[in-house]
Design goal:
By secondary structure, the protein is an alpha+beta fold. It is built from 5 helices and 6 strands. Strand 4, helix 3 and strand 5 (120-123) form a beta-alpha-beta unit.
Length: 161
């Protein structure tokens, strides 16, 4: 038997002890209480981030998965893996002879683990060098914003980033 603890509204307070968390609606359905938070509460985003924070797969696991799909020269992760949901891509892979079936299977496995859809980019080595040399906005956005290189065999080309 599971005991349910009653939530006392007086016990839920913000850091500034004077302001109490206001409950907008209270609803009782079949002897269960449901509460809804005030959407204008100043700490609502921090509470959401705390409760909904995902724990991404470990970086070595991602590296092992990427090495199995082809000759990968550069593997960059950003976005949801670094708790930045509004980036242009979550994974950028640069390489040759990539097995797309294995890559899609790897992406689906990652999506299941983190519980969200991933945005990814696959570029050939020559295409990446061309786009990087031409200051392609998309490639440079990924490389200039916070990211983590899990595989880096490009040498001096992207060493300065």
């Amino acid at each position: 038997m599971v005991k349910r603890k009653k939530i006392n509204r007086k016990n839920i307070v913000s850091k500034n002890k004077k302001r109490k968390l206001k409950v907008v609606k209270r609803k009782i359905v079949v002897h269960e209480k449901y509460y809804q938070l005030n959407s204008n509460w100043e700490y609502l985003e921090e509470l959401k981030n705390l409760v909904l924070k995902i724990s991404p797969p470990s970086f070595p696991k991602i590296e092992r998965g990427l090495t199995k799909i082809g000759k990968i020269k550069l593997g960059i992760i950003t976005g949801v893996f670094l708790n930045m949901p509004n980036t242009r891509a979550d994974i950028m892979v640069v390489g040759d002879d990539i097995d797309f079936k294995k890559f899609i299977s790897f992406i689906k496995t990652l999506e299941e683990e983190i519980g969200t859809e991933l945005r990814y980019v696959i570029l050939g080595t020559d295409e990446f060098k061309y786009r990087y040399g031409m200051f392609d906005r998309f490639v440079h956005d990924i490389l200039e914003y916070p990211h983590r290189k899990v595989i880096d065999k490009m040498g001096k080309l992207v060493a300065k980033i």
